[in-house]
Amino acid sequence: MSNEIFTLHVNGEAHQVRDSWLGENLMDVLRDRLGLMGSKGACEQGECGSCSVLVDGHLVCSCLVMAASAVGQQVVTIEGVAPVGSPSDVQQAFVEFGAVQCGFCTPGLIMAVHDLLERTPDPGDTEIREELAGNICRCTGYGRIIDAVQQVAVARRTDRSGA
Amino acid sequence: MPVLFPTTVDEATTALAAHPESMLLAGGTDAMVGINDGHHRPGATVISVNRIADLRSWRHDPDSGTLTVGAGVTYTELMDASIAGLVPALAEASRTVGSPQIRNAGTLGGNLATSSPAGDGLPVLSALNAVVHLAAASSTRDVDVNDFMVGVKRTALKPGEIITGVTVPIVEGWQGYAKVGVRNAMVIAVASTCVVVDQTRRTIAVALGSVGPTILRCPDAESFLASRIDWDSLIASDADQAEFGRLVSGASQPITDHRSTADYRRHAVGVLARRLARRAGATS
Q1: pLDDT tens-digit profile of B205-232?
Q2: Do B2 and A22 touch (CB under 8 A)?
Q3: In chain B, beta strands by DSSP E
Q4: CA distance B42 to chain A (A)
Q5: For position A4, what pLDDT does the model report?
Q6: In what order do the strands lie in the sheet with B3-4?
Q7: How far is B242 from chain A (nearest CA, A)?
Q8: Closest residue of B to A20, CA-based?
């Protein structure tokens, strides 16, 4: 079943989606119809988290969102986190701590870490592991990812206290 | 438009009556997996039920001692302290669902509609004898959750009906949910158990997930523990906890599949039941 043309709001811009099929997931529409290739697709069943985006502020797997059902909602992808060339504090920390190896899981993890630190500015080790349980990384063993998250939490705390 | 966005239950049931072949879409965490792998097609029309305000809210009625949860309330919302304080096992089960991404999208109504024997919310609803609220274009009805779930991914939902919510009693006593899977997160249950100890009525309820075609209750184990537990301390002896576990294992009807074997599931569900019986006495 082909779909009507519909409009998605992604990273603050309205995009017309053409030629999609009804039932096509948001991840495929972002990548294949809108050319936003940052969100990665691997499992297409919500297990790997590499396609994580925000829909109306909620972290979700874009592979489990029917694209045409996101009409009227605000979608934020990894491309909306920071402009190319000026990484966010989380992205910078991932680079500095070696939390990126093959990089495939990284966009989803960056989305999840930003979401985590918004809700929990001072997460403990277990909290970080639990909150990132929906993002699978097969390279790093997670240690450096957790180090990077803690570093960002400390840096933001220092900023807030004006030290 | 192939996707409809009703904002009231009436609009949704009217749309469903007008387009009986429509697919109902809530959180999408089950539905989209089926679509992505090509097992399901959405048909000509999809009715998104996510923007129905009545489905997205919950309310505590102290007079009747109940909590009514809209079908569109997510697992993340069910983990909220205000719900956890009223129905702890529901919050506990919600916390074991998938990952933050899945819990932000998946809904209690979707859990019921899919009615997988592994659905994490379902043993809790079963043990609490929840009432499922259904609506059609010109009627509503209530069904006991244990009559609603009729088989593997089969429910008593009739054509034209949508699930609007569930009502569970606020129970004085202790309740808990435990589950076994291959790791600590992002896991579909290999076996799961909910135990509710009702200190006022002096009854025990035990419901099992992933060890039968649908959620199973264990009447023999329930009456056994109710006759042995100390109703003031909620403590049962080690021997009685072990016998309780054996009775629960005996009530299970597991199969061997790609997730586990029947033998392991029968064993695991007994261990979970014994563990929950111990926890009941450890916390009061």
Answers
A1: 999 999 999 999 999 999 999 999 999 9
A2: yes
A3: 3-4, 23-25, 46-48, 58-61, 66-70, 131-136, 139-144, 149-151, 154-155, 162-169, 173-180, 191-198, 203-209, 216-217
A4: 6
A5: 85
A6: B3-4, B46-48, B23-25
A7: 32
A8: B2
Q: Does B37 touch chain A (CB under 8 A)?
A: yes
Q: Is B44 on the interface with A (CB under 8 A)?
A: yes
Whether residue B67 is found in the same domain as residue B187: no
Residues of A in contact with B48 (CB under 8 A): 66, 69
Distance between CA A155 and CA A159 in Å, rounded? 6
Q: Are residues B182 and B127 in the same domain?
A: no
Query: In sequence order, which residues have a C-beta less than 8 Å from that of residue B71 and are 6 or more positions away?
Result: B26, B49, B55, B107, B108, B109, B110, B112, B162, B163, B164, B165, B166
Enter the ipTM: 0.96
For A8-34, the pLDDT digits (tens) are 999 999 999 998 999 999 999 999 999
SS3 B197: strand
CATH, domain range A89-161: 1.10.150.120
B contacts of A49 (beta carbons < 8 Å): 99, 101
Model confidence at B1, in pLDDT bands (50, 70, 90)?
A: low
Q: Which two tokens stand for residue A48?
A: 């790997």
Do B87 and B162 lie in one domain? The reply is yes
- B76 min Cα distance to partner chain A (Å): 10
Domain identity same for B147 and B256: no
Cβ-Cβ contacts under 8 Å, A72 against chain B: 5
Q: Is A87 on the interface with B (CB under 8 A)?
A: no
| Pairing status of strand A6-10 against strand B66-70 | unpaired
Chain A, 129-148: which have a CB under 8 Å from a chain B CB? 130-131, 133-136
Q: Summarize pLDDT for B240-268 with one digit per residue, the tens.
A: 999 999 999 999 999 999 999 999 999 99
Q: What is the pTM of this model?
A: 0.96
> Do B42 and B151 sit in the same domain of this protein?
yes
Distance, CA of A66 to CA of B50 (rounded, Å): 12
Inter-chain CB proximity A1 and B5 less than 8 Å: no
- Residue B138 in any domain: the answer is yes
Number of domains in chain B: 2
- Domain membership of residue B54 (yes or no) is no
Are B121 and B206 within one domain? Answer: no
Residues of A in contact with B32 (CB under 8 A): 25, 46, 63-66
B236 with B248, same domain: the answer is yes
pLDDT value for A163 = 59
Residues lower than pLDDT 70 in chain A: 1-2, 163
The answer to whether B101 contacts chain A (CB < 8 Å) is yes
Domain A6-80, CATH number (from 3.40.50.2300, 3.20.20.140, 3.40.50.10420, 3.10.20.30): 3.10.20.30
Query: Residue A3 and residue B2: Cβ atoms within 8 Å?
Result: yes
Residue pLDDT, tens place only, B22-62: 999 999 999 999 999 999 988 889 999 999 999 999 999 99
Q: Are B27 and B155 found together in one domain? A: yes
